[in-house]
């Protein structure tokens, strides 16, 4: 029985090639993974045993976005129902503080001593509307309040500013020099870049020519380009360092989570409706492999030693674990409650985080 698919080269050849290109980081600790469960708590997974060793109560409902500070001291979750974030002492699992953000907080990125959280004051909740061919998938968002990104100072434990995005802001990324925050705005099919210092809009890029509902966004490790997944375009869009669109590459249906590997040689895309984690050559964009997974798999993370990938699948209530070099399935961790996001400590490469 074939559990994973490779194209166009064999598993043996690919594994040998990657073993040479990606030497094992034997000195790196396996660490812990943290999974936000929308209908529950944050699960803690030991990455040596791949077993759940505990749960963290965020003392709120519907945690989705999740992030961890570089020093591993704090864990942050965005709680949809409470309109806030939970700031948690990672090692003890103790809640330090709830910080009010605004309606429908979703995506979390931590950079330095600040957390950036997207929230949607006008969000209606529920699944996204169905795409109407040729209609641009703009829905009724032109008359709605734009989404925003809350900026939280993790030393002061307070929200210090807000950056206005477009309607239904989704993914968050930073420019390599740390001066800009880039966000995907799925309702008006744009990627916008904003000054972190001033909050001002610097640039807007439309994705409509290539596909609708941009969601995930990642910068390449060398800073030369960005990749944006287009949920209704069944593709990802490659942008250069100045945000000029270069090309769209077909993927499976409804892609969301996206990440380069640590070396920038491969690109991973979670195609949720096709129940796949896909692998592309990050230079040629040739598809290398597909890993069948569960239902509504959106976000994933490498382990800190780069040996494994953990994929959170919300509607099948499980975490799928794969070998990061051969793409063979290793384990399903079941019993989750709508898992949404996953990060690790030590920090590793993934759709929600970067080391």
Automatic annotation (TrEMBL):
For this entry, the protein name equals Beta-propeller fold lactonase family protein
UniProt key word Signal: yes
Q: Where is this region: Disordered?
A: 119-145
Q: Note the superkingdom of the native organism.
A: Bacteria
UniProt keyword terms in alphabetical order? Signal
Tell me which InterPro entries the record gives.
Answer: Host-pathogen_enzymatic-act (IPR051200), Lactonase_7-beta_prop (IPR019405), N2O_reductase_N (IPR011045), WD40/YVTN_repeat-like_dom_sf (IPR015943), WD40_rpt (IPR001680)
| SUPFAM superfamilies found in the cross-reference section | Nitrous oxide reductase, N-terminal domain
Question: What would be one Pfam family of this protein?
Answer: Lactonase
UniProt signal peptide: 1-21
């Amino acid at each position: 029985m074939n559990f994973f698919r490779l194209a166009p080269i064999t598993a043996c050849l690919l594994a040998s090639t990657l073993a040479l290109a990606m030497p094992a980081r034997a000195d790196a600790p396996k660490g812990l993974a943290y999974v936000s469960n929308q209908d529950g708590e944050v699960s803690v997974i030991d990455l040596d045993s791949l077993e759940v060793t505990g749960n963290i109560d965020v003392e709120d409902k519907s945690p989705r976005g999740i992030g961890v500070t570089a020093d591993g001291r704090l864990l942050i979750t965005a709680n949809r129902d409470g309109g806030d974030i939970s700031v948690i002492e990672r090692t003890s699992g103790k809640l330090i503080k709830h910080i009010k953000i605004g309606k429908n907080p979703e995506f979390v990125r931590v950079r330095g001593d600040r957390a950036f959280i997207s929230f949607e004051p006008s969000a209606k909740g529920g699944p996204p509307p169905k795409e109407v061919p040729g209609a641009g998938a703009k829905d009724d968002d032109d008359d709605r309040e734009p989404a925003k990104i809350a900026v939280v100072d993790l030393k002061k434990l307070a929200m210090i500013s807000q950056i206005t995005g477009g309607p239904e802001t989704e993914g968050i990324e930073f420019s390599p020099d740390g001066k800009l925050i880039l966000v995907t705005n799925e309702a008006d099919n744009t990627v916008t870049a904003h000054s972190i210092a001033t909050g001002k809009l610097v640039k807007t890029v439309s994705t409509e020519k290539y596909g609708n509902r941009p969601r995930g966004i990642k910068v390449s490790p060398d800073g030369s380009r960005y990749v944006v997944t287009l949920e209704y375009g069944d593709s990802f869009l490659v942008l250069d360092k100045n945000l000029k669109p270069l090309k769209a590459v077909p993927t499976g249906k409804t892609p969301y989570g996206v990440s380069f590997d640590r070396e920038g040689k491969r690109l991973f895309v979670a195609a949720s409706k096709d129940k796949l984690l896909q692998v592309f050559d990050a230079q040629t964009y040739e598809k290398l492999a597909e890993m069948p997974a569960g239902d509504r798999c959106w976000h994933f993370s490498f382990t800190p030693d780069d040996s494994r990938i953990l994929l959170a699948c919300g509607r099948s209530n499980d975490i799928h674990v794969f070998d990061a070099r051969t793409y063979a399935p290793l384990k399903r961790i079941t019993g989750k409650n709508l898992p949404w996001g996953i990060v690790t400590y030590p920090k590793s490469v993934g759709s929600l985080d970067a080391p």
